[in-house]
Amino acid sequence: MAYDDAGHGRTVVLLHGHPFDRSMWWPQRERLAAAGRRVIVPDLRGYGDTPSRDTCTPLAVFAGDILALLDELDVEHFVLGGLSMGGQIALATHRLLRYRSEHYRVRGMLLAASSPHPENAAGVRARRATADRLLSEGMRRYAGDMLPRMLAPDSIRALPATARHVRRMMTATPLDGAAAALRGRAMRPDYRPELAEITVPALVVVGEHDTLTPVPIARDTAAALPRGRLAVVDGTAHLPNLEHEVAFNDTLQHFVETCDG
């Protein structure tokens, strides 16, 4: 498993979304490492530099990979976060830790642009169809279709380097890994009943203009978490950590500091 391990101090683990790689977290890696944190940012199975032979990768498999990496690195306690699919993998990781009676290891939870809902019937069909489409067409057309949903229009105009980075991540994603993850997400369970059992500090972040995981879903998620807090990042869509790095980093750093108690 490819990963970055930067800085020293209490550990923060950040999981990227689909169809990206660990470079989507580099602004946060640099900020938190400079603030005295150890930041572990992996490439998920089938993404970036981490290989996979899966034809279907459920969220629980990703979660097992994350815990195997943290065990190998002797990381006992950590703040766990993810964006979009990465947030769902964070929830799957917490579930797996509960099964192992080790959920005490999670000292805080970040859910950015993510949803705890299960996939509905239409979504199952759409994800499976998209997986087949990627394998037949490649990533370039998909990236072109998705870029206006990932970034707000103002972000695309004002941040051309960010738009190029997002497009590059999408077009560079291995086809087999992306398709396997889509099929796995079509099978995802309902994490909403478990939100009440996540008793550590939890931060839910959403972009003001996110149409993939809209603000009402984020608001409901934060309300269901016993120590949940909602942050809406103005002027952003599905990638607030890249569209408004300063606001996102300020919010994340403050949250991580609240997890030290």
Automatic annotation (TrEMBL):
Name of a matching Pfam family: Abhydrolase_6
GO molecular function, one term: hydrolase activity
Species, as recorded: Prauserella halophila
Entry-linked PANTHER family: AB HYDROLASE SUPERFAMILY PROTEIN YCLE, MONOACYLGLYCEROL LIPASE
Residue intervals of the AB hydrolase-1 domain: 12-250
Record SUPFAM superfamilies: alpha/beta-Hydrolases
Gene3D superfamilies named among the record's database cross-references: alpha/beta hydrolase (3.40.50.1820)
InterPro entries found in the cross-reference section: AB_hydrolase_1 (IPR000073), AB_hydrolase_fold (IPR029058), AB_hydrolase_sf (IPR050266), Epox_hydrolase-like (IPR000639)
Protein name as it appears in the record: Alpha/beta fold hydrolase
Key words, A-Z: Hydrolase
